[in-house]
Amino acid sequence: MTAPIAAWIGLGSNLADPVAAVERGLDALAHLPSTLLSGQSRLYRTAPWGMTDQPAFVNAVARIATTLEPLALLDALLAIERRHGRDRARDLRWGPRTLDLDLLLYGRAQIAQPRLTVPHPHLHRRAFVLVPLAELDPGLDVPGFGPVEALLAAVAEDAAQCRAIGD
């Protein structure tokens, strides 16, 4: 039996009811085969990134323990997105979305394949990922980029705009 690998998933939504969409995404992660949802951050209201003329997002990060291989996990995440109304082929890059699931980290792996890059190529520049990631695993080291706390310090101005929902 293969030992489970820790993986971190970024979740986001800014259409319809984004809080409910992210919560449904977390629930779907908890029901993936060969996978255990082992942690989740609070939900954060965040400013849009890339394409800024759109509604604010709700973001979170989940940690899972899985025996799924990276591409199988990616396919499972994309299937969850489709079930929640996301059509990546039609969506604008960095535009509004019903549910976005990004494979941020897969253990200590560094993967560069046509369909998958891990660590996520923009993780180190996105406060909306780093804030919940640091809440969940403050001592985490991002392969090729360094400690999550140092990465967060580099985007401190944007991080100050991330607001935990319910606080």
Helix/strand/pairing category: alpha+beta
CA radius of gyration:
15 Å
Percentage of residues in strands:
25-35%
* CATH homologous superfamily designation: 7,8-Dihydro-6-hydroxymethylpterin-pyrophosphokinase HPPK
List keywords for this structure.
167 residues; alpha+beta; Alpha-Beta Plaits; six-stranded antiparallel sheet; two-stranded antiparallel ribbon; 5 helices; 29% helix
Q: Explain this structure to me?
A:
There is one protein chain. With 167 residues, the chain is α+β, with helices and mostly antiparallel strands. It has a single domain, classed as 7,8-Dihydro-6-hydroxymethylpterin-pyrophosphokinase HPPK (Alpha-Beta Plaits), CATH 3.30.70. 29% of the residues lie in helices and 27% in strands. Strands 1, 2, 3, 4, 5 and 10 form a six-stranded antiparallel beta sheet that branches. The chain has a two-stranded antiparallel sheet with strand order 6-7. Strands 8-9 form a two-stranded antiparallel ribbon. β8 and β9 (146-147) form a beta hairpin. α3 packs antiparallel against α4. The longest helix has 14 residues, at 70-83. The radius of gyration is 15 Å and the shape is globular.
What is the strand and helix layout of this fold?
Elements: E1 5-13, H1 18-30, E2 35-40, E3 44-46, E4 57-66, H2 70-83, E5 100-106, E6 111-112, E7 117-118, H3 127-136, E8 141-142, E9 146-147, H4 148-154, H5 156-159, E10 163-164
Antiparallel strand pairs: 1-4, 1-5, 2-4, 3-4, 3-10, 6-7, 8-9
Helix pairs in contact: 3-4
